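User: I've been trying to design a sequence by hand for this structure and keep getting stuck. Would you show me what you'd pick, starting by listing the structure so we're on the same page?

Assistant: Good idea, let's start from the same input. This is the structure you sent:
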């Protein structure tokens, strides 16, 4: 079982950016937490973060034929990117959309998610734990 964890723009700034919304944990701490969770369960995991939409599309495409699941926090591209939606549709890999904050309680422009249309589940407002919940969802026997 191999999972790709993909994070979009500004998620490399975790710990610095708006700690009242995203908490004090860094991107590195997030990755360590996920790796530990996966190691305990014998899940292979890879990490990718980019501030560039096309690089995120490339990474989703790279997962084709390689990964069994994708956990993605597209950051602000959630609310704008048809390209990310199409990439997830193209590879056909079960994908969970994760948001650290509860986007449903934030600005109107955050209420739209294009990628959600191609995702098997959305987890929001659970902080870093949302990523672990996403991995559990993708790897549990269904
Ligand atoms: C986010 C929510 C988005 O609206 C925002 O642009 C982000 C982070 C979250 O994890 O809560 O960059 O995806």
């Amino acid at each position: 079982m191999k999972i790709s964890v993909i994070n979009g723009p500004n998620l490399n700034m975790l710990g610095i950016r708006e700690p009242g919304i995203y908490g004090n944990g860094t991107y590195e701490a997030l990755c360590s937490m996920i790796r530990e969770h996966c190691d305990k369960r014998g899940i292979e995991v890879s990490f990718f973060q980019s501030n560039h939409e096309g690089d995120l599309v490339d990474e989703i495409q790279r997962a084709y034929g390689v990964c069994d699941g994708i956990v993605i926090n597209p950051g602000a591209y959630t609310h704008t990117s048809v390209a990310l939606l199409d990439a997830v549709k193209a590879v056909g890999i079960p994908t969970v959309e994760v948001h650290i904050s509860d986007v449903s309680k934030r600005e109107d422009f955050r209420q739209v998610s294009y990628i959600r249309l191609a995702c098997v589940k959305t987890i929001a407002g659970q902080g870093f734990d949302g990523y672990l919940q996403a991995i559990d969802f993708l790897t549990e026997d269904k």
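That's my pick for every position. To get oriented when you compare it with your attempt: Residues 27-41 form the longest helix (15 residues). The chain has one domain: 2-139.
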